[in-house]
């Protein structure tokens, strides 16, 4: 009787601690940022039992094509070493384009869910207006010059996503100059309309600015909800999604 009781307690304990131990979340930061910018998200996801691969990559030193191979593959390798059976991605800004670029050339069958924060999925008008100014590439690197809205930009060429995707857009800005170059509403770097992409499963716009949305508690709560349930608390489900 005692043996059976001890066994039951052990099994319940194992089940409670293992809940998401077989799921890995790859975090990819944005342009000009580092893995440190995603640490609050990393901590919250670990609290929920996920294995987390918070990847640092040289966002201003290479093209989007090269960065996608480096960053995404490092994330996948980290998850493989952790023996995770399912792989998720949570990205900020440029990080989302790296995931789209990588999976435009690879099977996404191993990807469980993806959440993108402020992604320039349709490019950014800021790049259209500032990209040709001398010195712009010195600030943003080659990747920054590839994020325009013209037909030859990387986002314009990637097409619909081929994985389960939730997009979170920001609606607040503290940079009035940048916002003046963007359709309203916007987050100071990307318009809400430009974050959307064909094939996404859910979408939500929240009152946060581009540079701090990955640290915003409401954003983080929505990230966790999508990873757990495949939908946002405040989102629009696929049948009602509006896409320009």
What is the structure about, briefly put?
With 244 residues, the chain is α/β, with parallel strands linked by helices. The protein has one domain (23-238): 3-Layer(aba) Sandwich (Rossmann fold).
Outline the secondary-structure elements.
Elements: H1 2-18, E1 23-28, H2 39-47, E2 51-55, H3 64-81, E3 86-92, H4 94-103, E4 111-117, H5 125-130, H6 136-145, H7 154-158, E5 165-170, H8 176-179, H9 192-195, E6 202-206, H10 217-229, E7 236-237
Parallel strand pairs: 1-2, 1-3, 3-4, 4-5, 5-6
Antiparallel strand pairs: 6-7
The number of E-state strands comes to 7
Count of spatially separate domains: 1
- Return the CATH topology: Rossmann fold
Q: Indicate the CATH class.
A: Alpha Beta
| Average predicted local confidence, pLDDT | 90
- Total number of helical segments? 10
Query: Any idea what the radius of gyration is?
Result: 19 Å
Which segments are poorly predicted (pLDDT under 50) over 5 or more consecutive residues?
A: 5-19
How would you name the CATH homologous superfamily? Alpha/Beta hydrolase fold, catalytic domain
Q: Tell me about the biggest sheet?
A: 7 strands, mixed
Structure notes:
It is a single chain. With 244 residues, the protein is α/β, with parallel strands linked by helices. It has a single domain, classed as Rossmann fold. It has ten helices and seven strands. It has helices at 2-18, 39-47, 64-81, 94-103, 125-130, 136-145, 154-158, 176-179, 192-195, 217-229, and strands spanning 23-28, 51-55, 86-92, 111-117, 165-170, 202-206, 236-237. The chain has a seven-stranded mixed sheet, sandwiched between helices. Helix 3 packs across helix 4. The longest helix is centred in the N-terminal third of the chain and has 18 residues, at 64-81. Residues 5-19 have low confidence and may be disordered.
